[in-house]
Amino acid sequence: MPRQNGFRHQSYPTQPACDPIVLTLDGDAVQSLDFGHLHTQFGVRRVLLVHGTFAGDDPFGIHAMMRAGAETLPALAQRAVHPLIDRLAGQTKRLTDAITADVANFSDGYRKRFQTLAGDDPEISRLEPTWSSENNHVARAGLAVRLLNELSGLHADGFDPEHERVLLWGHSHAGNGFAILSNLLANDRQSVEAFFDAAGDSLGSAGEAARENLAATPTPHPMAKAVFVVTFGTPVRYGWDTDGLRSLVHVTHHRPIKDHDDPAAIIPAVTFGCEGNSLGDNFTAATTGVVDVLAAKHGDWVQAFAIAGTDIAPPLNRQDNARLGTFLERGLAEPTPQRLKEKLKVTCTRWQTRTRLHSDGRNLLVNYDSSQLTRFGPARQAVLGHGIYTLKDWLPSQLSLVLKWMEHDGA
C-alpha cells in the first residue's frame, strides 16, 4: 500500500497491493454473533455512515444555484429566502429516503440496526447534515474537507487517536470522498496546498477551515492513525494515501463468470455505446449487454461503470471543478477531455480495462447468496447491482465479514 500518494489518481487497470478475496455471503449465517468487540477489540468509538451519489440533499446542484442567486438580493430578502432553501434541501433528502428506503441509501432503520448490533458503544450515526451528493469533483472534495473538520473537532475535544478509532462506512462515491480525505490526513504540505489552490473558492468556509487546520497540525494529521475505512461498491477513482488512515477494506458485489477457471475473473469490458458496439453497429451485442446490466449478471455494474469520465459538471464552480479534476486525475494515462465526443472515447478505453479492484486496501469480491426482494425488484439486481450493500438485513453478515478482514490485516 503506497504512502505519500499526494492525491494521485489510481490507474486503469490497477495493480492491487494484495490479491482479492472472492467469497459467497449468506445473509443468515451470523445473526447471533456478538458485535460488541467492535469497541472492545478494535477500539471504535464512533461509526459514521455516509451515503453515495444522488442520495443527498442537492444531487443536481439546484439548491446551490438558488443560494447563489439569493446572494444578489437585498439583505432582508436574503434572510427570508435562505431558510426556505434550507427547508427545500431537507425535503429533498427526506423524499429520497422515503423513495429508496435502504436500497442504495443508509436509512435511519439501517443506523438503528447497526446500533442494536454494536450495543451502547460505539455511537452509530449518519452524516448530519448530509452532503450534496453531486456527481463531480467539487462535491466529493467538499465531503472530504467536511469529514476532515469533523475529525479535527473530535481531536480537539479530547479524542485519543492512540487508543480510539473512528470507522467510516461509505457507499459508492462516498468512498471516493474518503480517498481524498486520506490524502488530506496524510498532510503532505506541498500536495495539500496544491489541492486547495486547485479547488479555488469552491469549498467555501469549510475548505478554509480545513486548510488552516492542516497547516497547523503535524504530518500526518494525528487523527490519521485512528481512521478505519470500509467502502461498499465504490468505483475506482481517486488514489488512497495509506499515511492518512489505519485500515482500508473494499466490499464489491461480484458474481463470478460462469465456467471460468478463475473465480476472481473481473467482469466483461463495458462497451455499450462505444465505437463498434452501438445499437446501430451491433444490435445483438449491445442488447445482450443491456440485459446483462439490468440483471446485474456480473454483480455491481455501477461500480464498474462510474469511473473517471462519468461525472456531471456542476451548474456552479465549473472552472474550479475542471481545475480540481485536472489535479485529482494525475496518474491517469490521459486526462478526461471536456468535449463529450472526446470524453466518451477516452472513457470507453478506460471501461475496456475491466477495472474493478482498488490499488490499495483489501478487496473483498462478494457474491450475495440472496433471493430477497426489494421495492425495486430482486435484491441482487436492485439499482443494477449497486443497491444490495445498504439493505439492513445484510448488515450482520457484512459487519462480520469486515471485522474478520480488518483483524486479519492488522487493524
Percent helix, as a range, is 25-40%
Number of strands: 9
SSE string = EHEHHHEHEHHHEEHHHHEEEH
The biggest sheet, with number of strands, parallel, antiparallel or mixed sense and barrel status, is: 7 strands, parallel
> What percentage of amino acids are in beta strands?
5-15%
Gyration radius, in Å: 21 Å
How many individual helices? 13
Q: Spatial order of the strands in the main sheet?
A: 1-7-6-5-4-2-3
Question: Which descriptor suits the 3D outline?
Answer: globular
Mean pLDDT, rounded to whole units? 90
Structural class: alpha/beta
Poorly predicted tracts of residues: 278-286
Present the secondary structure layout:
Elements: E1 21-26, H1 37-40, E2 44-50, H2 62-70, H3 75-100, H4 108-118, E3 123-126, H5 137-156, E4 165-171, H6 174-186, H7 189-199, H8 204-215, E5 227-232, E6 247-253, H9 283-294, H10 301-305, H11 318-328, H12 340-351, E7 362-369, E8 373-374, E9 377-378, H13 395-408
Parallel strand pairs: 1-7, 2-3, 2-4, 4-5, 5-6, 6-7
Antiparallel strand pairs: 8-9
Helix pairs in contact: 2-3, 5-6, 5-8, 7-8, 7-11
